[in-house]
Specification:
The termini are far apart. This protein has strands at residues 6-14, 20-29, 32-43, 45-48, 54-56, 61-63, 67-72, 75-80. By secondary structure, it is mainly β. Strands 1, 2, 3, 4, 5, 6, 7 and 8 form an eight-stranded mixed beta sheet that branches.
Length: 87
């Protein structure tokens, strides 16, 4: 079964219960997500590829670049964007 990918900037917030909320958006301006079009709420596990560069704030982390985000079996995976040869 194919897994859909969301592409955009990702913001990760840790919830009080230890789960995470991941927002996928078109940009991040002054540390705030703009144009949120996907949200993973109460994700028990978030795996961030070592190649993803993050900016840390007091309450969240967000990606410096556009990334690919997948969700499968309760785990959200964030990895660098794979460039396509298609125009």
């Amino acid at each position: 079964m194919a897994v859909a990918n969301d592409r955009g900037y990702a913001m990760i917030r840790t919830n009080e219960d230890g789960t995470s909320t991941v927002l996928i958006c078109s940009s991040i301006e002054h540390g705030k997500p703009v144009g949120v079009y996907a949200k993973y709420v109460m994700a028990p596990s978030v795996h961030i590829d070592p190649g993803v560069r993050l900016v840390r704030t007091a309450h969240s982390r967000y990606t410096r670049d556009v990334v690919e985000v997948t969700h499968r079996a309760g785990q959200v995976r964030i990895r660098p964007r794979v460039h396509s040869l298609r125009a």
